[in-house]
Amino acid sequence: MTNFEIMQLAYQLRGQGDARPLADIVASVQADMVVFDQAAPLPGEVIGNKTEQFPDGRKVTTEILGDGTEKVIKTEMIEMPEQEAPEYEI
What's the pLDDT tens digit per position in 35-46? Predict the structure, then answer.
């Protein structure tokens, strides 16, 4: 919520009969907004995952945790197709 919207809501509440000082109404609106803010993830909470494939054929799947650390949950080897050597004409 922008400052403009907070002030607009504060004046609206005052118009509906709230007799407190405007600063107190604004503080009350801001305190109410905290309830709707999304909480930060906990350090051990999984917030995402990623899979990386390396040239040697390893495929590694990791989980990203709330504190930014990554935990490997799966490593596997996959068959890489053999590449033919390019033929050069001399």
Answer: 877 778 888 899
